[in-house]
Amino acid sequence: MNTVTYEGIVKYMNSMEFSGMKLGIDRIKTALELFGNPEQKLKIINIVGTNGKGSVAAMMSQILHDAGHKVGMFTSPHLVDVRERIQVGGQMISKQEFREVFLEAKSKLADLTFFELVTLMAVLHFVNKKVEYALFEAGLGGRYDATNFDTGEMTIITKVSLDHTDILGSTVEQIAKDKCGMIKKGQPVVVTHANNGLMGLIRQAAAEKDATLIMAKDTDYELSLKGSFQKENAGIAVQAAKELRIDEETVKKSLRKVKWPGRVEFIEKNVLLDCAHNPGGIEALRRYVETLKYDRLFIIFAVSNNKDYKEMLRRLPEHHELIFTQTSVARRLSIDEVPDDIECTKIREPIKALQHAKSLAGEKDLILVCGSIFLIGDVKSSQLAHVTVN
Description:
The structure is a single chain. The protein is α/β, with parallel strands linked by helices. Helix content is 38%, strand content 14%. It has 14 helices and 14 strands. Strands 4-3-2-5-1-6-7-8 form an eight-stranded mixed beta sheet, with helices on both faces. Strands 9-10-14-11-12-13 form a six-stranded mixed beta sheet. α3 packs across α9, α3 (53-66) packs across α10 and α4 packs across α5. The longest helix has 15 residues, at 114-128.
């Protein structure tokens, strides 16, 4: 396979992504050692949790940038372009830089998963760009995630709830314990008050690492990101910024201009996209939708095949017309697998599902697209490809 051109590299990496994720930090540790442990040159802030990680990362990136720091941000998954995962100063890595750092990463080793490779590429790129602070959103869990480096300045824990139960554990306590594996010795841990029922467990994990535990509360600052749940995420960012001695006025200004695509995003006047992809995320989205005024609600819904989609459906806003579709990724739930007792219209292609909803919806109706980050990516990809959805 061609791994010399940017396009060839992306095709190769896409084939890697379909092979799945292997938990464990031995491979990434070996890789970093081969490069002389470049991560030690960065002030790393790790972000773990079930929901809100990406939003908190985007907020922290804006705050640190506005405070005069050069900041890198690594998030996952991407919506449209794999380069979204690696950003410096709010700008995606360029195609040329992506190609160069891929070749650099592959020059010394081959046995890495997709996620491990992109994590390594992010570290190398951040060092190449002389980044000061590097924000790393965990891919899955904490203890055995590839972003769990030996070094770190701070760990942030967003709200923990049930997700990936087939891997992380069947209870919220088991999941929280795994995420606490990201805590670094002697470094501060900023945790949202929304984890109040888990604080005993988190406090014990922090104490075992001699880490200072800092509780974050919701903020009433003006936010650019919509949804009451963003007050919780912003509260975490405010507390983390305070710990980093960033002045309050800078924080306030930054939170008014943060952008994070696909999160409560209106792409048209009555078409709302959100990446909610687990029961907790759907619950938070429902609370936001209930604040809106509309006549009828059409919901375009798709999920990955490892999700508790029946519980997600139960938490959707009431009185809606459901259109079940499927994403383009291998681990999707096919519409052929949707039980007949679920009252819905089944349309295989997301863009056709959106076309169908738009044909039914009036000016005062709302179309909500949710259930999977990959679904939002498919819709936004179609937008960028200028596919008409009228």
